[in-house]
Amino acid sequence: MLPKQSVLIMLVEDDEGHRLLIRENLRAAGVVNQMVEMRDGQQALDYLYHRGAYQDANKCPRPGLILLDIKMPKIDGMALLEKVKSDPHLRTIPILMLTSTSDQVEVNRCYSLGANSYVVKPVHYEEFQQRVKSLGLFLDIVRFAD
Question: What is the model's pTM?
Answer without folding.
Answer: 0.83
